[in-house]
């Protein structure tokens, strides 16, 4: 997979489609709903984009996220989570998937608790400025594009993703001494 020249944002939440469509008229943005596309198709779209921003709704870690949430909601097993993490790490190593530059989480206050811990805990602990809670999908994401935070890029997937197996809701992101006392 060729690296994208665009800054890539993945928009997640109930209103992701309408938020993405609101960006379609901007010349510097390539916006598309790709939630049903394969990782390979998304990689092709991304590599072919010459716009400064590529905004879509295809999360390359969606299977890991779902497995993590289902495990902690007692709907799945540890083995499923382990398998999904293994698959994602292998795909990242083969350059089939890449974590987007930013995740934009719409209406995070409305998310079920475990999903909130995934987006604002597990992912944000890997790269805090790269997960952006966005409180209002009705407000165009164009404003966000003009003021994206800077900060360290995502570490390599294989260096942090295996650690999410031990990331416990309510404790993820807390300093070690607070986790031990909890």
Description of the structure:
This protein has 182 residues and is α/β, with parallel strands linked by helices. The chain has one domain (7-181): Rossmann fold (3-Layer(aba) Sandwich), CATH 3.40.50. 39% of the residues lie in helices and 12% in strands. It has eight helices and five strands; from the N terminus they run βαβαβααβαβααα. It has helices at 16-21, 39-48, 62-72, 78-93, 113-126, 142-145, 157-160, 176-181, and strands at residues 7-12, 29-31, 53-56, 102-106, 131-134. Strands 2-3-1-4-5 form a five-stranded parallel β-sheet. The longest helix has 16 residues, at 78-93.
How is the topology of this model organized?
Layout: E1 7-12, H1 16-21, E2 29-31, H2 39-48, E3 53-56, H3 62-72, H4 78-93, E4 102-106, H5 113-126, E5 131-134, H6 142-145, H7 157-160, H8 176-181
Parallel strand pairs: 1-3, 1-4, 2-3, 4-5
Helix pairs in contact: 3-4
């Amino acid at each position: 997979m060729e690296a994208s020249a665009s800054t890539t944002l993945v928009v997640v939440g109930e209103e992701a489609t309408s938020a993405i469509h609101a960006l379609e008229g901007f010349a510097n943005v390539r916006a598309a709903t790709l939630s049903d596309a394969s990782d390979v198709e998304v990689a092709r779209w991304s590599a072919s984009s010459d716009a400064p921003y590529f905004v879509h709704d295809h999360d390359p870690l969606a299977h890991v996220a779902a497995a993590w949430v289902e495990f902690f909601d007692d709907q799945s097993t540890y083995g499923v989570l382990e398998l999904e993490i293994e698959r994602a790490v292998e795909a990242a190593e083969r350059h089939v998937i890449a974590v987007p530059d930013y995740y934009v989480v719409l209406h995070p206050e409305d998310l079920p608790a475990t999903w909130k811990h995934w987006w604002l805990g597990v992912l944000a602990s890997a790269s805090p400025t790269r997960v952006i809670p966005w409180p209002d999908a009705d407000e165009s994401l164009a404003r966000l594009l003009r003021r994206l935070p800077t900060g360290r890029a995502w570490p390599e997937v294989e260096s942090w993703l295996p650690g999410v197996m031990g990331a416990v809701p309510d404790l993820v992101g807390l300093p070690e001494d607070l986790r031990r006392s909890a």
